[in-house]
Amino acid sequence: MLNLRWVWHAETREIFDSIDPELWAQTRHDPVRLLAEVAPQRLAELAADRKFTRRVELAVAELSDYLTEDRWYQEYAAGNADAPKSIGYFSPEFGVTEVLPQYSGGLGILAGDHLKAASDLGVPIIGVGLLYRHGYFEQSLNNSGWQQERYPLLDPNSLPLRLLHDHADQDKPVVIELPLDGRTLYAQVWVAQVGRVPLLMLDSDIEFNSGTDRDVTDRLYGGGSDHRLAQEILLGVGGVRAIREFCRVTGTPLPEVFHTNEGHAGFLGLERIREYMTGVDGRPALDFDAALEEARAGTVFTTHTPVPAGIDRFDRELIRRYFAHYEPLPVDRVLALGAEDYQDGDPTKFNMAVMGFRLAQRANGVSELHGEVSREMFHGLWKLFDTAEVPITSITNGVHHETWVHPALLEVLESARGNGDTILDGYDWAGLERVDRATIWTMKRRMRIDLVEMARERLTASAVTRGLPSDWTADVLDPDIVTFGFARRVPSYKRLTLMLRDPERLKRLLTDPERPIQIVIAGKSHPDDEGGKRLIQQMVQFADQEDVRHRIVFLPDYDIAMARPLYPGCDVWMNNPLRPYEACGTSGMKAALNGAANLSIRDGWWDEWYDPAFGWAIPSAEGVEDPNQRDDLEARALYEIIENEIVERFYDTDSHGLPQRWIQAMIETVAGLGPKVLASRMVRDYVQKLYTPATASSRRVSATPTSAEELAAWKRRVRELWPQVSVDHVESLGGETVEVGATIDVSALVRLGELRPEEIEVQMVAGRVGPDDELLDIQSYPFPAGVDQPDGVRRYQGTVSTHRAGSIGYTVRVVPHHPDLASDAELGLAALPKISEP
Ligand SMILES: *Cc1c(COP(=O)(O)O)cnc(C)c1O
């Protein structure tokens, strides 16, 4: 029960349900409360029930196998010497279960799914977060539809958590200490066991702390910037210390890779630098530069937002104050790490994303489009390179299927397994092809009924809270009507109310006598976001109207408990963000796994995997400057797709009442997207593309007591001598541009100054010629070794054949070269031919 595997293990949940179905529903599926509250007679009865006890024994044995047997990672690690022994995964929020409300939205759910998938795959991750005593708020509505926030106090002792104790003295909880603005902050560590993965949660609400310090972990995303900074220092600095304690007490190997999930956790890099500077694990103390190399090599940073206002920044002076006495780190070096020292940067700000990139040798965005947008957004940090070369890659988010797919559908995908390669992680994503269509449709109807029942219950409760009559809520929605879902946080870019652009048109769709639609809406607005609350109110007031209220509902308090029946119950999942502000989006993936079609702007993941077989793309009017006009255009396209295509297809049934084309699309959606959108695919990607290379780098840079210092010294030397490097002359045997298929034959004269030839690489850089004569989509090709010429010049000569369309331009450049660099752009240094002014 303390192991949270029950969160996604259907059979264990069935056991809890069978103990006392009413209480299980009442406790909102919280086994800790269930077992605390169940009547003793009932327990005695069950203990005497042979069938029940055998089921429990089986579940216990199954869990023990799950926790100990070799899984995907064990085989992977056997074949990969550089697979890490352990990984630390830091995130400001974790959405593992509604029972632990430590998340506000997609970022937290993603982190929770990352841990669950890592557990299933056997990846040795240790999660690190904070335990917010009030979590994120619970949402209700007042009479007029205005959001109300409640922050119930959580008692960690009644949650599925255990306090980390020192094993030498089981009564003594481990207490972490860290410097905070001239004081010492203390925190205890709660451990949530997510299958095989421990999640450490730091909690400052202990008696060692003074009043305000006890409140550091009071709530998620509350308070001003001092408060937020204190939280982030606790998460990053305290988190590294908590991992050390956890590993010492439990004998777990220390992480070789540290993953910073979003900038908020970035201070972990500073703590690791501090450790290397003071000398840890019997190693000699390093200077700042060498310590930085050690820390960077094993750090992965994932950026999560393309919304500039979403980037976490602090006043520089605040950082100076908090890190003034963080010995032996020089505060000026700390400040330099977060400095926006590029064009259009603000010199008074300390930017957590910028620090994230400087402290991590490897970084990524969370969808292909978001990777591209991030490379543009942070181009200033590598401005001598083409946008495409900015060293930020992408790994597209995924969702944990056993958490998010309806148990009935999972059962089908498991039992209808063929023997093809469409089986992934135990389920055959193409399995629906082998299932009778009527069965599929009955199952989908069952999912809709689950949603309708949940919605009626919640609406009835909400009507009471709002002081409204509830005589109509018992029969809202209809399990035979095409059901749309729209649920997510409510920042303005997500445009909750776009569907209200033409209210009369929406009403006609909802109340069509022959072919109506129905919509289920949910979402919380950040407590300080008045604009978001206004949008919710607008939505609620529309849905309150008597002529539509049975077809469009706003359900308060969107959380995991609501989300689980919501996605399967929908036929169409709607998403209309302002492109390209949705970094990835994951709710549409969860809906798709349950056979829903997506109706979405091509943003985030949907830009990457959109296919007419899986749903519809709302055309994005990005070129239109006037936001009102843009909304009008996009809303009109939305209505048209619903009227002309969705409604038409859903209600096009055969003589048995089956919408054959719709069912076919369901089958294709699950088969086509299933394998792609899984969190297990995402975690494998992280392991193979980032964690393993980071481990290799980390081991190389710490191979000998001096290797980090040597790398740091080399970088210093290259930076210092770089002004001496130049490309003096480029000579070609063709024109300035060449046509596709041609070979480019170039010779260049390069001056290296005091640098040695093996410390640089001379490259031919070719790309399409853009409208301003710039090179686009460039590719670089190293020249063969050069030959010394008189006067300190070297000649490099090479040939490249082009395969690209359009006219090709090229140039020659010199970049630093070292086996421990992860990309040519890493140092941000390049020498290009001088442009001769006419
Ligand atoms: C999946 C999920 C989200 C994230 O949805 P987006 O599509 O990324 O906006 C937010 N909240 C809950 C409860 C979820 O389950």
UniProtKB/TrEMBL annotation:
One of its GO terms (biological process) is carbohydrate metabolic process. It catalyses: [(1->4)-alpha-D-glucosyl](n) + phosphate = [(1->4)-alpha-D-glucosyl](n-1) + alpha-D-glucose 1-phosphate. Residues 3-100 form the DUF3417 domain. Keywords: Allosteric enzyme, Carbohydrate metabolism, Glycosyltransferase, Pyridoxal phosphate, Transferase. InterPro entries: Agluc_phsphrylas (IPR011834), Glyco_trans_35 (IPR000811), Glycogen/Maltodextrin_Phosph (IPR052182), Glycogen_phosphorylase_DUF3417 (IPR024517), Pyridoxal_P_attach_site (IPR035090). It holds the Pfam family Phosphorylase. Its cofactor is pyridoxal 5'-phosphate. GO terms for molecular function: glycogen phosphorylase activity; pyridoxal phosphate binding. Its EC number is 2.4.1.1. PROSITE patterns: PHOSPHORYLASE. The modification N6-(pyridoxal phosphate)lysine is found at K590. The keyword Transferase applies. Belongs to the glycogen phosphorylase family. Phosphorylase is an important allosteric enzyme in carbohydrate metabolism. Enzymes from different sources differ in their regulatory mechanisms and in their natural substrates. However, all known phosphorylases share catalytic and structural properties. NCBIfam families: more_P_ylases. PANTHER family: GLYCOGEN PHOSPHORYLASE. This is glycogen phosphorylase.
